[in-house]
Specification:
The protein is built from 6 helices and 12 strands. The protein is α+β, with helices and mostly antiparallel strands. It has a single domain, classed as Rossmann fold, CATH 3.40.50.
């Protein structure tokens, strides 16, 4: 699971730390997986994104791209919107490298919120930078730290539909979303206002991105269980 590197204060300490909300760890563990945190590489004397991604992904069974800050619009040749988050350059570099390497390896992958956007950009797609400007769009977050809840409709036969059925109630916290889909990536879930909420890569592998936050519903493990199952089946095939 990907993480930030951010300053964190604890007791007398105020130091850089690999940071990820603990719900992600719980989600993977409850679904039967073993979570491994993957922070961006460190100083320049350590292996940098492409080399580090290759080394890391040779040792894990699946990749989860966690939620977080907006992907820098310059990654898809656009100017950042006035509402865009300050770019997390190290994390953009790292997650784009991980995603491309995971796709090369055929590794099972689940992108969550920002992760769905990283997957889209890694393959050459673009993003809607501010969903509230889309005509007819409803709120996909309610305020600072306050998730919106709505229903998504899934595409019949998709991996998301197989896991969740024709529709599901989900927790969202995003103001950006998928815009132009790259070749091979298709929309497989939509909010009732038409905003893309799920994407999947064509083919037999498990490569899924969702705009919602399954870690906010730890009583519903179906999507993460699908990833863990895909990883387990692929690992058996290699033995």
């Amino acid at each position: 699971m990907t993480t930030y590197v951010e300053r964190a204060a604890q007791g007398v300490w105020d130091v850089p730390a690999a940071y990820l909300q603990y719900q992600y760890v719980e989600l993977v563990t409850r679904a039967g997986g073993v979570p491994v945190l993957l922070p961006p590489p460190g100083p320049a004397d350590l292996p940098q994104p492409d080399g580090a991604a290759a080394a890391v992904l040779d040792r894990v069974d699946a990749l989860v791209l966690a939620g977080g800050r907006d992907v820098d619009a310059r990654r898809y040749d656009a100017e950042p919107h006035a509402t865009a988050d300050p770019p997390a350059t190290d994390r953009d570099d790292w997650e784009l490298a991980l995603t491309r390497r995971a796709l090369d390896l055929g590794l099972p992958l689940l992108g969550i919120c920002r992760g769905a956007q990283v997957l889209t950009v890694a393959l050459g797609g673009t993003l809607v930078q501010h969903v509230p400007e889309v005509p007819g769009a409803r709120a996909h977050k309610l305020g600072p730290g306050e998730f919106a809840t709505h229903t998504v409709r899934t595409l019949e036969g998709s991996r998301v539909a197989t896991a969740l059925g024709a529709d599901a109630t989900v927790h969202c916290y995003h103001h950006q979303a998928v815009d132009r889909l790259p070749e091979g990536l298709r929309a497989t879930a939509h909010a009732e206002d038409g905003v893309v909420e799920g994407v999947e890569l064509d083919g037999d592998g498990f490569v899924v991105g969702v705009q919602w936050h399954p870690e906010q519903s730890l009583d519903d493990l179906r999507l993460m269980e699908s990833l863990v199952r895909a990883a387990r089946e692929q690992t058996k095939e290699k033995v």
